[in-house]
Amino acid sequence: xxxxxxxxxxxxxxxxxxxxxxxxxxxxxxxxxxxxxxxxxxxxxxxxxxxxxxxxxxxxxxxxxxxxxxxxxxxxxxxxxxxxxxxxxxxxxxxxxxxxxxxxxxxxxxxxxxxxxxxxxxxxxxxxxxxxxxxxxxxxxxxxxxxxxxxxxxxxxxxxxxxxxxxxxxxxxxxxxxxxxxxxxxxxxxxxxxxxxxxxxxxxxxxxxxxxxxxxxxxxxxxxxxxxxxxxxxxxxxxxxxxxxxxxxxxxxxxxxxxxxxxxxxxxxxxxxxxxxxxxxxxxxxxxxxxxxxxxxxxxxxxxxxxxxxxxxxxxxxxxxxxxxxxxxxxxxxxxxxxxxxxxxxxxxxxxxxxxxxxxxxxxxxxxxxxxxxxxxxxxxxxxxxxxxxxxxxxxxxxxxxxxxxxxxxxxxxxxxxxxxxxxxxxxxxxxxxxxxxxxxxxxxxxxxxxxxxxxxxxxxxxxxxxxxxxxxxxxxxxxxxxxxx
Length: 486
Fold this sequence. Notes:
Layout: H1 2-27, H2 34-46, H3 48-58, H4 65-81, H5 98-109, E1 114-122, H6 125-137, E2 142-147, H7 157-168, E3 172-178, H8 179-183, H9 188-198, E4 201-205, E5 221-222, E6 225-229, E7 233-237, H10 249-254, E8 257-259, E9 262-266, H11 269-285, H12 290-293, E10 305-312, H13 320-331, E11 335-339, E12 343-344, H14 347-358, E13 362-368, H15 374-381, H16 384-390, E14 393-397, E15 401-403, E16 407-410, E17 414-418, E18 422-423, H17 424-428, E19 430-438, H18 440-455, E20 457-460, H19 462-466, H20 470-483
Parallel strand pairs: 2-3, 3-4, 5-19, 8-15, 11-13, 12-18, 13-14
Antiparallel strand pairs: 1-9, 1-10, 2-6, 6-7, 7-9, 10-19, 11-16, 14-20, 16-17, 17-19
């Protein structure tokens, strides 16, 4: 009997191993990029049981069906509500390709291109927090606050005070914060206590609470940063509401500080950013705040920027941000400047960037000299040789500052700013919000920021890169493999 059992167990293990591999070949490649499917298959073939568990936990890039249906409902609502809205009309100074990309964004994300907007850039970390604080202090009706990371600390205390003062004045303050991202920051419990104390309405974004029936792939995150006050002014960009060191002793020991970019907007585009907040509020609460959604904003100022909000993430059928970014890069004729803390492109973006450089477009990429996330940092470095050989100029923003701003410019006409990195996580796994802007004055303002980055950076050469130690090259290439496990 013992001998029989000892024989059956190894056979069962072998059969299970074979079944796992066969089923993996059948199901893993479905609706996935070949590189992504290959990476998962390699993981499952080399470590079948651990690979299978990892795939079951992290293999699906889709939000739960109920959330996807909510996004579709919001899209239909936005399309219907904006059917008769005053959209930006084509002008002689538009690039010939611009109208088609605006139409693409409208089809994918439902938001129309709107004219009559003004924008101010804030590249100073403390100044942007001050400006957002003052906006909340001026609130008369509502303040909608949404951040990937929201933390109550010495730097952000004035912002929390402004929210508390607004509540006391009868202003409705609604707050959304990403669950896992904020949970990982020191002082999370203190932050939640503060939100409860000051009396705002708050909810967690994409909470991982299986005991409450709230669960999806754990690393599907809401990465957006948006503030809307009274429907008249909005902020969006790359900056989280937290101390510039992210309140981590390891960052302080290394001297790390973050440099970000936020944009203050006025005009009709504010309603679109408010819709982003309202759609996320609807996803978490099942409450669609229609009254706030219907507030119209008149054109303002003399800049008359044409702006369009581009939402993206696993709630949509396509990778809205990636499609827009690639379209813009292929459209560029003279110059492209890319700024991203995490540059881990998929094959389509890598081809778009290198093709642009090879056809004579001046392409520059700003990244940080050091990284705060080791695996992503090394995966990013694995692309440098290909980029340099294609003619891309790579600028390394000098340590110990992390260049966390996320934006790029196309020629002298169009720019994109927002929360989206140029990496596969932002294309596939994160809920992001980007803003496409057509207006030379805005591009010129971004050019000034780019020049500041250039002065704070050093240029990486191909000779320097090819002379790096073999061990770092191996580490970079191994890290690159993990980027496809999505």
